[in-house]
Amino acid sequence: MDDDGTFPAEGFDEAGFDGDLLEEELREAAAVLDPVPPELRRVAMGAYALHDLDAEIAELTFDSLVDALPVRGVPQAPRMLTFRAGELTVDVEVTEEGLIGQVLPPQPARIEVLGGPQTAQPVAVDTLGRFTSDQTPAGPFALRLRTGGTVVVTEWLRA
Amino acid sequence: MRAGTLHSTAYDDVPYTRGGAVDRTEVGALVRSAVDGDAAAWKALVEGLSPLVWSVVRAHRLSDADAHEVFSTVWFRFAQHLGRLREPDKAGSWLASTARHECLKVLRGLTRLTLTDDPQVLDRASEERTPEQSLIDSEEQALQAERIRRLWQEFEALGERCRQLLRVLMASPPPSYLEVSSALGIAVGSIGPLRQRCLRRLRARMDARGAA
Q1: What's the pLDDT tens digit per position in B136-192?
Q2: Which of B51, B69, B196 faces A158 most closely, judged by CB atoms?
């Protein structure tokens, strides 16, 4: 089951070995040598602003990184994502050049690429709900769609 | 929030608390308060659960850049799902599981594969002067720091499975076994025995080092 080779001498644990104490020492070591970086704690604090009960979530239902077989010899195959919220589907392709996508069923929409609590970049959408952006998201992103009277936000994802 | 141990004076920015910043039984209540707009509840969730998320990310040995992105993604998604969690009491497991899946995606994305042997952490543990060390003035603290450094080196040298498990277990406050299970995709029932085994192995390495 393991990659560590042999197990230490038998009877070791009968010699009053205190695993809890050692684990606590490790906890102290981690707090000193590998703590949560302060800037990341701030990011997590700021994430509260993304909590929005009014927006519907479009869940990730397909991710080529997980659901597709790797394409041999095509290391730069674009990432394909599908999000779904009720009847609404959003297909997205992430390439080196940016984003290409399609809202289904085809319909006009206003779409923004979110990069965090403070960042929203509108993208060009045609009347059939096809959209393009010439920027590949650097880091976590989500799409916010306004179509008809509803607001839909795709699940946050790392591009 | 801080337990006032000797560490908090030496490492001012380290939110280390022996007792735990968030009682796990309160997590559900905090989630519900945060949904209702209580920013202090969100802050408590971040304080209490971000070390767990960080531990999961670190257990998967992502590069610093990937680790930061996964950590952020997990918290963005948590905020997004906050009012819709099926089991608010298990928010820790939700976070651990989400972090794990994002880590695995990073590792699968071959074009972005940036596996690392954690050089930063090892370097930090072996450098002559670390920022942490410069804060240490008394001899007793220096000995303690030396001990921590040696422990960390032996921990890093453990086999991958033990290193992963212990990295998650050492989150502060200590994670529940359910959270550990979500973090690593191993059965709750196998965590206890594996933990004992890995801790014994680490102890043996420390002893061997002491005897050398």
Answers
A1: 567 778 888 899 999 999 999 999 999 999 999 999 999 999 999 999 999 999 999
A2: B69
Distance CA B57, CA B69 (A): 10
Establish if A2 belongs to a structural domain: no
Query: Based on the structure, what is the number of domains in chain A?
Result: 2
Residue pair B196/B111 in contact by the 8 Å Cβ criterion = no
CB-nearest to B73 from A8, A70, A157 is A157
The reply to whether A94 and A72 lie within a common domain is yes
Interface check A36 vs B, CB under 8 A: yes
What is the per-residue pLDDT across A131-151, written as a single tens digit (0 to 9) for each? 999 999 989 999 999 998 899
Task: Tell me if ipTM is over 0.90.
Answer: no
Query: Is A4 within the bounds of a domain?
Result: no
Answer yes or no: do A33 and A57 share one domain: no
Neighbour tally for B191: CB within 10 Å: 19
Q: Is residue A119 part of a domain?
A: yes
Token pair for A59: 């869940």
Chain A residues with CB under 8 Å of B51 CB are 35-36
| B159 at interface of A, judged by CB pairs closer than 8 A | yes
Chain A residues with CB-CB distance to B13 below 8 A: 35, 38
What value does the mean pLDDT take over residues A36-53? 95
Tell whether B78 lies on the interface with A, counting CB pairs under 8 A.
Answer: yes
- The token duo for B40 is 């202090």
CB A29 within 8 A of CB B148: yes
The pLDDT confidence band at residue B131, using thresholds 50, 70 and 90, is low
Q: Which of A24, A33, A47 sits opposite B124 (nearest CB)?
A: A33
A66 shares its domain with A32: no
Any domain includes A3: no
User: Residues A106, A37: one domain?
Assistant: no
Q: Which residues of B touch A156 (CB under 8 A)?
A: 73, 76-77, 80
A86 and A99 co-located in one domain: yes
Q: In whole angstroms, what is the distance from residue B95 CA to residue B81 CA?
A: 11
A103 and A44 in a single domain? The answer is no
As a whole-number percent, the residues of chain B with pLDDT over 70 amount to: 75
Q: Which domain holds residue A19?
A: 12-48
